[in-house]
Amino acid sequence: xxxxxSLPKAAIFDLDDTLAESFQPPTRAMIDRLLKLLEHMPxxxxxxxxxxxxxxxxxDFLAISPHINRFFVFPNSASQCYVREETGWRLEYxxxxxxxxxxxxxxxxxxxxxxxxxIEPHPKYSPEIIDRDAQVALTAIGLYASEEDKVAWDxxxxxxxxxxxxxxxxxxxxxxxxxxxxxxxxxxKGINKAYGVTWLSKRLGYKPEEMLYVGDAFYEGGNDAVxxxxxxxxxxxxxxxxxxxxxxxxxxxCTVQK
Length: 258
Known about the structure:
By secondary structure, the chain is of the alpha/beta class. Helices cover 35% and strands 21% of the residues. It is built from 7 helices and 11 strands. It has a 5-stranded parallel sheet with strand order 3-2-1-10-11. Helix 1 (28-38) runs parallel beside helix 7 (240-256).
């Protein structure tokens, strides 16, 4: 992990396996780091997770910041954006999928699972298809499988790459990305984390290369890898412990450059 040597004007973070362990709430120490970072710059969460989970795990705790109006939330792989106003959080945009599109995606997922056979019967868990209106997600062994089982299921992403290939044949006009340890996320074509980076860059008036993005899925097909062509500075982490180190480096630069 490279040292942060120049102070970014804004910081963007993935959620699962970046700000927190997969599908777990962040630690109090991580919340405190985000509060400190907000004192110096705009901060965003850009995640395949849905808004309700981000709200419950982060926003209720971050709301104490006097700078909360410069915190941005991009759930469902940037197919939505929430901004803070005096009365609370407002949906700035939502690039929803139609009912017909979501139905076609779910059918394609079921057919691809049957064709590839990569999701074998599990004694404790089963795949789930999650419909979040603006995104449809497949979790291959369910949302609440143990961390040990998630890590073991597809460590090299080969199973999900096989599934992606089958899905791309059936629904080529949608964005299909690998996220987390067991998931595949599907949105409108071109709506991905790069879209969120570009939107925030324009909103803040900063060039992408003046901002920092931290995530764990920079491998081929990973949902963080798409931000690289925007020019944003990136850091790849393997968990929240490394993210904490990066935030501490940025905070140290804030102190030096006051």
